[in-house]
Specification:
449 residues, mainly alpha
């Protein structure tokens, strides 16, 4: 098969699978954002809400709200097709590169779940291609386009800020730093800040709540935590695919100075989060923008005869195992059958809450104990019956910034039996008539005093 045939086939398969894979609470949460459009949000910048706004007409259709995001994921492969060809990769190497991404736990299975990583990786990839294009013929207009791309990436996820040190490291290493003496790159910086300005304005209006949350989230401990770097490295080793990781490392060790652009855009994200892992637990997906570049080093071996003969059999076997793993997880998601511990099964929460949907469908207005639960129930209710999280319960999130999170009339709230209510709720509201739900949660009547 050709590279483009694989591209279209993967898009078709994902489109077919979309209707049978249950929506996740986090996706429902981002969908809820699209009903309350704002300059930015507490958890993340706003681009994910724009994707969900485009998806609103597809709500409860066969393809569902994921389809625009899935298309964006696949559009994100296109810059790499041109980039790898430009960097001297054969089509064979590009095919192995794309298959490895499509079968990866985060870049493959993760491609079914629409999160801020989707626009982040798209603009990160587009920005790398734009860099190569700029240095073909540096002009102010090309730099300005890169500024817009970086700004849109930062409107997707704050991790996009790492694009700047990656770019500067490559420029200094590859003798391109003379561009720093010209106005183009500085004007690009100004344009990126202007593009990012909705997030700056929102944070200014809300006491920089999002910036402080993300800083604390990434550096929450004041003491060094030695176990977490080991956990981070082992997780990344598993997420990339152990054999492919080893092949990529072997290739990178030999040719790290021959593909400087790929090297810095792979290593800096991984290195940055490795350093932060000494202070806080790093989620597996945080350095995902570095995956395509790292896997390009693995794919590079297919352009060297001796290494191709050595590794092809093992790589095909590894990718085959990865494909079987994808099938197992997808079938388990649709109909659970694998012996996965409850605390390790990320689909368990969806299965626990699903029976409650019918039990509370006629209760309105409805409030819940967490943002995931509020968004999950909202997704399955009519638009006019959107559920909200009770203000002040659980961690701070988008719902705490919405006035609807405080009941203005008699309603219903889903809680755990032992939940401690926020002070504002205890003082001003009364809970009555508890009813046990199928999930073993309890729904109370909530009445303003």
């Amino acid at each position: 098969m050709t590279l483009w045939q694989i591209w279209w086939l993967a898009l078709a398969i994902k489109t077919i699978l979309l209707p049978i894979i249950p929506i996740t609470p986090d996706e429902a949460y981002y969908f809820a954002w699209s009903r309350h459009l704002a300059l930015s949000y507490f958890d993340h910048p706003p681009f994910i809400s724009w994707i969900m706004t485009v998806a609103q007409p597809l709500w409860k259709t066969a393809v569902g709200i994921r389809w625009p995001g899935v298309i964006l994921i696949h559009l994100g492969y296109i810059p790499w097709i041109f980039m790898l060809r430009r960097l001297g990769f054969s089509e064979r190497a590009q095919i192995f590169w794309m298959i490895s991404l499509l079968l990866g736990p985060l870049t493959g299975l993760g491609g079914f779940v629409i999160t801020p990583d989707v626009p982040l990786t798209f603009f990160w990839s587009l920005g790398m291609l734009a860099l190569l294009w700029i240095f073909d013929k540096p002009t102010v207009s090309r730099w300005l386009l890169l500024g817009v791309i970086v700004g849109l990436g930062m409107l997707s996820k704050y991790v996009m800020v790492l694009f700047v040190p990656c770019m500067l490291a490559w420029m200094f290493w590859d003798n391109k730093a003379h561009e720093l003496k010209k106005p183009g790159i500085w004007l690009a910086g100004i344009v990126s800040i202007i593009t990012f300005s909705p997030v700056l304005i929102w944070n200014y209006q809300n006491d920089f709540a999002s910036f402080l949350f993300q800083a604390k989230h990434g550096l929450e401990s004041t003491a060094i935590q030695w176990k977490m770097p080991v956990e981070y490295l082992s997780t990344q080793f598993a997420m990339i695919n152990p054999l492919l990781f080893f092949v990529a490392y072997s290739s990178l060790r030999k040719r790290w100075d021959k593909q400087k652009l790929l090297f810095v855009f792979a290593i800096i994200p991984f290195a940055f989060f490795f350093m932060t892992s000494f202070r806080a637990r790093v989620e597996a997906n945080w350095p995902v923008c570095g995956y395509p570049s790292l896997l390009a080093f693995y794919a590079m071996v297919f352009d060297y005869t001796a290494e191709r003969e050595r590794w092809t059999k093992w790589v095909k076997m590894s990718l085959g195992i990865a494909g079987v793993f994808c099938i197992l997880i997808i079938t388990h998601t649709v109909h659970p059958w694998l012996p996965i511990r409850k605390d390790k099964d990320h689909t368990e929460i969806t299965r626990e809450w699903t029976p409650d949907i019918q039990a509370v469908k006629n209760l309105r207005p409805l409030y819940t104990r967490s943002y995931q639960m509020a968004a999950f129930h909202s997704y399955y209710r009519p638009a006019e019956d959107e559920a909200f999280k009770i203000k002040g319960i659980d961690r701070l999130d988008v719902y705490d910034f919405l006035p609807e999170s405080l009941p203005s009339q008699k309603g219903y709230v889903i809680l755990k039996a032992d939940d401690k209510l926020p002070e504002i709720i205890e003082k001003n509201y009364t809970l009555q008539n508890p009813t046990l739900l199928p999930s073993n949660l309890v729904v109370f009547e909530i009445i303003p005093k």
